[in-house]
Known about the structure:
By secondary structure, this protein is an alpha+beta fold. The protein has three helices and 13 strands. The longest helix has 26 residues, at 47-72.
Amino acid sequence: MRPLANRILLVTAVTLAVSASQASTVSAFVITKCGNRPSMTGMTISSSSLHAALIVGAEKSSAEAKSLIEESIADTDRGRSLESAQRTRVHSLLSDLEALCPLPEPARDARMEGPWIVLYTDAPPPSNGQLGFLRGVAKQVIDMTGRRYRNELYVGGVDGDEDAWLTAVLDAKWEEWDGAYLDGSDGVAAVDDPGATTWKVDFESLTLSLFRIPIFTQQFKAGTSRTWRMSYLDDDTRIVRAGKTGRGEDDWIFYMRRGA
Length: 260
C-alpha cells in the first residue's frame, strides 16, 4: 500500500474515533505498517491533541499529494501532451488528493472566489487553453456574490497575463445544481444536497479579442449548460470535474492553482 494511501486510512480511522466519542479522551484505533501488511494498534489520547494531530496530518498529506501531482504534470504542457499511461497515473494522483478534500460544501465556500490558473486538464480545446494550433493559458475567474464566472484563454502571455496578444473570454452564470441531469431525461442524481458540491453553469457569450480589441462575439443558445463538481478545494488549490450531463462518465477534470 502506498504511503499516501496509508495516511488517508490513518486520517479516516482517527476521524471515526473522534466522531464516536464526546469524552475528553478517546480510544482510537490507528493503522500502522507492520512489514508489508497494515495492522491496528490501540491507544488513548486526548481529543484536543487528536484534533490538532488530525489537522496537521491532513495538511501534510495534501501537500504531499499536490507535490506528486505537479511533478507528474510538469512536462505535459498542461495536459495537452502526455501518453495514456502517464494520464492514468496523473488521474490516480488527482483522486488521492480529492479523497483529502477538507470541506463538506466546497461549492459554497468563499475560497472559490477569484482567479484560478489551469495547470492540468484532459478537456479538449478550447477548454484546455488551445485555439487551433495556438497554445496558451486557461484561467477561470469566479464571482461568488454575483454568481457569475469567466473562462479566459490567453495566448502570448504568462500564466494568464492580460497583456497577451490574443484572448478568448467565455462569460457565464452559475447556480447550485438541483441534481437533475442535463441530458433531457427525467433522471436525478442520488445525492442529498447536490448544490453543496456542484453548480449548473449557463454559457452566455464567447468573445475573441486581438490586442484587447474585440473582433468576434458569439451568443450561446439558451439552455447551453454544464455541471461543475468541486471535488477538492483549499486556500490555493482546486479540482473541478466538469460534465455535459452531471452523470459523471462525461466529466473532464481540471487541476488549478490560485492565480493573480
